[in-house]
User: Fold this.
Amino acid sequence: MADAPAEIAALDAKLTAAREAVAAAKQASADSQTARRTIEKDLAAVQQRLSKYKDQLMEVKTNAEYHAMQHQIATANEEVAKYEERILVNMLEADELTAALKSAEA
Assistant:
């Protein structure tokens, strides 16, 4: 009986720590999803710009303009690749965060 209050306090502290861990995992997951949506919006903007460049490529009149458009298209393609890489990294992080959340909830 004398040890019961100390055990209850220890269990309450453990429960509070577990709840904080779950809340932190949920927040990290939400932050990851927000970051992914932002990256996807940026990617869509770059893809739209790339499409515009490809349309303009058919309208150029000089060789210099053609090379300039080719350079812009190559730059946009590099940006697309970077954003796609960031999305993949974010997906992997999201998987890890989901596993951590399940673990924390357990």
Observations:
- The CA atoms of residues 4 and 57 lie 79 Å apart.
- The chain has a mean pLDDT of 90.
- Helices lie at 4-57, 63-105.
